[in-house]
Amino acid sequence: MRAKLHPRLKLARIRHPWATDDSDQNGAFEIAAPTGRRPIIIASNDGGWDHISVSVRGTDGTPTWDEMCFVKDLFFEPEEPAYQYHPPHSKYVNVHPGTLHIWRPQHEKMPMPPLVMV
User: Fold this and answer.
1) N or C end of the chain: which has fewer CB within 10 A?
2) Which three-class secondary structure state does DSSP give residue 39?
C-alpha cells in the first residue's frame, strides 16, 4: 500500500463506522470514478495484509474492472501487484453483496503467473 494517502483521497474521506482519522490511508472514502459512478472504499492494513473493499453507491451491482483498477491505483504504487482473491467456498463470507476486494500481503512477495497468461 502507498506510504502516504493519494492526494485525490484527501477530500474523499467519509464518515463510516470503520473510518480512522486523517493521518493515514486507512478508513472510508467515496470518490468519483472515471466511469461516472461513485465507489465506496474501505481501506485497512491489519494482520499482515493490505485490504481494499469496494462497492458502488446507488447500485446493487459490483464495481466494474475499470473501477477496480482506478481504486487499486489510488492505494497501491503502479508496480505493486494485488489480488482479487477467491477463497474456497467453505470460507466465503458475504457481508455486503456487490462488494469486491483487493488484497496484498505485506511481508511476502506475490507469485505472478507468466505474463503471456495475464
Assistant:
1) C
2) strand
* Contacts for 51 with CB less than 8 Å, ≥ 6 apart: 43, 44, 45, 101, 102, 103
Indicate whether 118 belongs to any domain. no
Amino acid at 52: I
Span 12-48, pLDDT tens digits: 887 766 666 666 778 889 999 999 999 999 998 889 9
In sequence order, what are the residues at sequence separation of 6 or more whose Cβ sits closer than 8 angstroms to the Cβ of residue 42? Answer: 16, 18, 27, 28, 29, 52, 53
Read off the C-alpha cell for 50: 493490505
Residue numbers of the domain that contains 100:
7-109
